[in-house]
Design brief:
Number of strands: 0
Low-confidence stretches: 270-278, 329-336
Helix content: over 70%
Strand content: under 5%
Distance between the termini: 167 Å
Number of helices: 13
Largest sheet: none
Shape: elongated
Length: 346
């Protein structure tokens, strides 16, 4: 019984040892395989990093080249440059070269020049690029000159037509553009001078019309103010009119008439004239002033009057003016002159 148990134990232990050795061997082989795979993956990762770095460098270089092209491109050929940039991003030098040759054959000179110029810049020894690039450049320059001449002629003819239709402002702009392109082009200078004279005359005529409207409007303001008894406003309006046009209508006469209605301030060193007796009306005071203003007229009543100023209470009163004029037939021309002076100082 014991022998059987011992034999069983020996067999069990032997089996365990064989199993352990087998499992250890399998684990070793598996770990070794995993290490090899790890080293392989690390090598691949390192290689991918190198490729990514190289790709990024190429991308940066490509973007730098594209930025340079964008900065230097001619604005008249934006669409062409856009196509070339797309070609640069999506095609190789062979495609650009073939594009340039095809554009040359189709007489698309801008596209041909820019495509072949890129090829020449990238690889000056590529196939027959030197010959093709030189030909495309010459054709492109001739093309640009043709466009320039066409624009010059078209702009001149446009200005010529506008001048004939009296569209002088538009003609002036286009003649100036022609001269900026070619200073001695045909008779552009003479035509521009003629257009400028017409514009100056038109401006002067317009200014004159505006001045006439302003004079009439200002005159009417003075006229209405005078009619409504607003003499300071009327005086101001008439003075403005006379400053611009001294002989405009009857403005001068109206200004004199308005001034006679304004109160006059007394000089500082001049005594205030004594008023006529209160019982007298403005008409009676006017008669008294008229009589006292006649040559040789003296007396207590006249001595109390300042013959250069009307009484304050009668200024602007028509009755006072009628009283002054009522004595004129009896005293002749000298009295009329005196009355005229007095009326001006009212």
């Amino acid at each position: 019984m014991n022998k059987t148990l011992i034999r069983t134990l020996i067999i069990f232990i032997s089996g365990c040892l064989v199993t352990g050795i087998s499992l250890g061997t399998f684990a070793y082989l598996k770990i070794n395989s995993l290490n090899k795979e790890k080293h392989h993956l690390e090598a691949l990762t390192k290689n991918q990093k190198k490729r990514l770095i190289k790709f990024n460098k190429n991308q940066i270089r490509l973007n730098t080249e594209l930025d340079g092209l964008k900065k230097n491109k001619d604005q008249a050929y934006n669409q062409t440059m856009k196509d070339l940039i797309q070609a640069k991003e999506n095609a190789n030098i062979d495609a650009l070269y073939e594009m340039g040759l095809k554009a040359m054959a189709e007489k698309d000179h801008p596209r041909a020049y820019f495509a072949l110029a890129q090829v020449f810049k990238t690889n000056p020894t590529y196939k027959a690029i030197k010959i093709q690039y030189a030909a495309s450049k010459k054709a492109y320059e001739k093309h640009r000159q043709t466009l320039f001449n066409t624009k010059l002629k078209t702009t001149y003819l446009k200005a010529f037509d506008q001048q004939a239709k009296s569209q002088f402002a538009q003609a002036q702009v286009n003649y100036k553009q022609v001269l900026s392109m070619k200073p001695n082009y045909k008779d552009t200078k003479a035509r521009l001078a003629s257009v400028n004279r017409h514009l100056d005359l038109r401006k002067k005529t317009r200014d004159l019309e505006q001045n006439k409207k302003w004079l009439e409007a200002t005159y009417r303001i003075g006229f209405n103010a005078q009619a409504n008894g607003h003499y300071p406003q009327a005086k101001e309006a008439y003075e403005k009119v006379l400053m611009q046009s001294p002989k405009y209508k009857d403005t001068a006469k109206r200004l004199i008439a308005v001034i006679t209605k304004l109160p006059k301030a007394l000089p500082v060193n001049q005594a205030t004239p004594k008023a006529a007796p209160p019982s007298q009306s403005c008409f009676e005071k006017g008669v008294l002033f008229g009589k006292c203003s006649s040559p040789g007229k003296k007396g207590p009543s006249c001595n109390q009057l300042n013959l250069s100023q009307a009484p304050q209470e009668c200024k602007g009163d028509p009755a006072f003016e009628r009283g002054l004029k009522s004595v004129a037939p009896n005293d002749g021309q000298s009295l009329l002159r005196g009355l005229s002076t007095l009326l001006k100082n009212l």
